[in-house]
């Protein structure tokens, strides 16, 4: 194979000279370990990157002559750049092309969310992009609604749009004069129409396809968005979006038929976006080092060559895709694609040329690559006879993790000196915390309202109540589509509002019929994921179990001669020491006119927990609901209806007691305990003290004789443990 590359001779007495001599003549001479050749291995790529960055920092401090060339075969220098920046060294700036960069995903996600059954996850991804197709606050508002009720048109979705519309129109109303207000109002309506178009999706069947004009209109919407967002700045990603949208429009017009199936559009999008673009924010910085993504890019002599990622197959060319007949046709047309054996010879010559151009060589091979074991590089087999026989093996072979255990480490003719940092312990868990003045003021606010849920949090862990209900902190997890179990619960509550109406309890057959009809209407609005392929089992389960559960509830209520008074009823009362407001699932009225409460629960394995709450007098929700409905008496009877298990649990002697439970404390006494304990714990917060119940010693700081003792697993399901440090307790 002919080559135009010429190599400058080096001192054959050096290790790198011995490598050159071996590659040219096959003569094998043992290494002496002079630092011109170093083989670095690291358990992880992070350790290897730290090792390379430390060595390059030593080179810079020593004022070494010549440049350093880093070969980064996968074209991604992000890990190395992070390590270099921590040492004040210039970044290499290599970034591989990707079609998954934020702006490039607007086009495929817009089409992915257009098919029916609609995939709320695709719409959620679109709304959570770094640059969504609407203002970020509006996109996040809709994303929260999707996370709560994944579908289009449900109560959460409608409420989100009401908030968005109110904010946009409020902004328009701030215009200084009447003319400006009219223009602002008209622009606000146009803005809302554009935003609605992005979420008016899930209308086309994947197999039957989308009319070509509608597909072109969707492309033009993406095109207009990219142009508007770019505003003449010539952002590479947005220009790529423009080019991809135009290419897709051209492909749709060239296709010449309508409708176009989802498979056809997906393939055209893949071709339009192709490999995408490198990260446009990733740039190489000025310095004495540079990076190339292929060994073949090194054409001339380099003082130092660092071959990063010297592992794996090393192959960059795809397999030969043509048949013999196709190859003959290509040859006849004068198009001669490279044969696989020629590709292999070319790559081998590139590897060899990169080493022959080096005046000092560092081979870096992480043992793990993205979590999987990295095999040896093919070229390492050719170098193995030299690397495995060295008179001073420790100077040639180096383990990156040595930097973590030794203060002075010789590495490639340099000495890396590292000193231990002073260890700073994380804040330790403590039971009692001093609260800032702002939280104290909120705890003392006489207008503050409690709910059944906030009572549970307060009596379980006062610190959790402070963080969640006074400070307003929430779990920082990413927005996501709920799991099927939560969707079943949401559906069951929504279906119950359709199946039952105030008045006489319908017979089970009517309830079941109403439930089946309501399910078909509610599924795409609040539980659309169940309609997707792959969820047939969960969908069949919901269609069977929810109507059966509500029919069973109607049968139980009919036997007790109850009537329906209301569903999802809002109740608010001022009890003097505390104001309470909650929404109650189901309020019924007995034959004697007395009211009772049923709290609907969908739990897979929750029957034991609910039974325990009633038996041990810890049914805080039921006690609160009962006193809200009957504030002047002993509290209305209340019970849990477990939808999945079709069981109604209530305390012994209750008119709701389909399954009677012997209790140590009734709901009336439970409410008295709730009111007393919550007042004392809220007053403790008002005095400036917060108590983390999950930390050892918390009992010493709590008021004496609390009716609700600390639960041994108080921290099991809490999202605030990293703040109060209870994870480090014990």
Automatic annotation (TrEMBL):
Gene3D superfamilies named among the record's database cross-references: 3.90.320.10
Pfam families: PDDEXK_1
Listed InterPro entries: PDDEXK-like_dom_sf, PDDEXK_AddAB-type
Domain PD-(D/E)XK endonuclease-like: 451-725
Record's protein name: PD-(D/E)XK nuclease family protein
Native source species: Methylobacterium planeticum
Lineage: Bacteria, Pseudomonadati, Pseudomonadota, Alphaproteobacteria, Hyphomicrobiales
